Known about the structure:
Layout: H1 4-14, E1 28-30, E2 33-35, E3 41-44, H2 47-50, H3 59-69, H4 84-95, E4 99-103, H5 106-125, E5 133-137, H6 146-150, H7 155-158, E6 168-171, H8 176-182, E7 187-192, H9 208-218, E8 222-226, E9 250-253, E10 265-269, H10 271-274, H11 290-305, H12 308-324, E11 331-337, E12 340-345, H13 350-358, E13 361-362, E14 364-366, E15 370-373, H14 381-395
Helix pairs in contact: 3-11, 4-11, 12-14, 13-14
Bound molecules: pyridoxal-5'-phosphate.
Amino acid sequence: MASSKEIIEQTNRFGAQNYAPKNVVISQADGCKVKDPEGNEYYDMLSAYSALNFGHRHPEIVEAAKNQLDSVTLTSRAFHNELLGEFYERLSALSGKELILPMNTGAEAVETALKTARRWGAFVKGVEDGKQEIIVCENNFHGRTITVISMSTDPDCRKGFGPFTPGFKVIPYGDIEALENAVTENTVAFLAEPIQGEAGIIIPPAGFLKKASELCKKNNVLFIADEVQTGFARTGKMFACQHEDVVPDIYVFGKALGGGVMPVSAVAANRDILSVFTPGSHGSTFGGNPLSCAVSIKAMEILVRDDYPKMAQEKGEYFMNALRKINNSHIVDIRGRGMLIGVEFDINANDYVYALIHNGVLAKETHERTIRFAPPITISYEELDDAIEKITKALSE
Ligand SMILES: *Cc1c(COP(=O)(O)O)cnc(C)c1O
């Protein structure tokens, strides 16, 4: 087997450098633990940005995938497949929304939500086509396509990629007054992450989501929640909007929806909204493919059966309390919900990330100063204690 060094050199020689990965090659994974080619073991505290809520290779999800590989993997949407209906029904029950539209990546699902809102604006609300406005938040992260980065306020995401898609207005995250002032008769939607993940685990001021959702209702504006990172139990509720008893008009799902095996994303909304799509108006070759449906159906079944929200809530609290005991004067804030936790430093956190890696814990900083801890929700208390010991060692002064 090639060494980590050889693999990294090969990867860097032939690949575009649009990422700066840490110097760890993951070649084996099981649950919350991964191994490199040299046999070093690590706790995975990033979980592929919450795509691994079920841990690596959850046995039942892997079994569902293997079984599906033996029957049919891809049909395209030109024909029906046996599992798409069941996928719809399960996600509909879980989200409480009448209709589902399947895609693959988070960015595609965000695009789908934007198209939904624009068409709803033109067809239902009566906004002149081409005049639709969508309000978004500063420091948002919704993916990497041209339209999605058109909403971004991060210069690194945008530089050199213009011209951008028009029709977006940006307000400070959590600022209800700014939202109120930004709404016009042409506003069709307000798009927000219930907790901003990439921005550094930013929780909005208490009541913001609730007030924003009420404001949207009052003004006939759709409230779109991007739950790609926060959804499916990560924050201690099935969906992070539930922390404020908010039911958005449109949910955007991704990451964990694929059970850590396939890229699966979707938009969920009621019929009065999602029925704006007609044949030919939107689609995806791989969206809703039977292999994706098989793993996702199993993932959703496990999520409910094993009460993942409760697990994330309890383990998250336990974890956060332990993190608060770490003695380091450079730690200025520890925040989070459930198993989505940010530890913010007053200095660049890169050296701490390598100290963690050196101690057998994989984590990564976001926006230089905040380390995100988001282990698989399946991590046992025994494993968590062990990981906490390593983290404490790495982060203590
Ligand atoms: C990761 C993420 C996306 C984009 O998902 P991709 O699958 O990488 O396209 C969108 N929104 C949020 C909140 C995310 O965390």
